[in-house]
């Protein structure tokens, strides 16, 4: 089982954006060491944090070239509720985790998650609520094929089953934005590109709800992303390009999608109508081959769905978690003694 916060000393470089009062443990999972692989170019550890210590265990899997800090609105919510334990981590190639030699694959990144879950002791049957966004949703699909019996609910957010590399490319605005982001390290240049890529432009110019200063959504998000960049290690070029490679080569067949949908008690597919990184039609494709899944599309919504509508998003996840647990309970009650 992994170390609790007080047992694993992390240096001053390992800063966090999350509230330390809700943190149960954090550390580095020595993925390569656990797998007994000795290639120094492949060696890496995953940085993780657990917030809350409740019985319902949530695994949040972040998307392309983004650290776990992007889950701040969710950890601030679920980490304070006695019902939940929330696990966040940096995928290989970003944040405080290692950047092994690429290219990466979503299947390999899913194997990282299995190793982490084993390390922290989250092995019980139907104990997990898995939430994956974008590339994290692709990883979540691969995870669900590996440990389906551990999962009570699976939420696939603004993601895709993939296909050929050229069909996995984002819409043009997403492609051009990602190319520009690779060409700069200056936060004042990066942040406007990120915001215009993740959110509808008109929403960015609207007044932010519940902001005492009356700022726009753009101003609030700019401050949020500035803080994240300040606390996150700069991503290496190999990490950025290797994660992109994982997204471009991802593919889960229709047959595998049906198997996932039939083996996981509750599956949610959520998308927005103005996504510049993952075409919303990909969620329709997921639904067509996962007939038992719940499909939802939100209007006026971009790729940054979990931040754009954080209260609505968190509320939806709560319902999905409850429904997944209810299905598991009902099925167990039907089993013969």
From TrEMBL:
<dbReference type="InterPro" id="IPR000073">
    <property type="entry name" value="AB_hydrolase_1"/>
</dbReference>
<dbReference type="InterPro" id="IPR050471">
    <property type="entry name" value="AB_hydrolase"/>
</dbReference>
<dbReference type="Pfam" id="PF00561">
    <property type="entry name" value="Abhydrolase_1"/>
</dbReference>
<feature type="domain" description="AB hydrolase-1">
    <location>
        <begin position="58"/>
        <end position="304"/>
    </location>
</feature>
<dbReference type="InterPro" id="IPR029058">
    <property type="entry name" value="AB_hydrolase_fold"/>
</dbReference>
<protein>
    <recommendedName>
        <fullName>AB hydrolase-1 domain-containing protein</fullName>
    </recommendedName>
</protein>
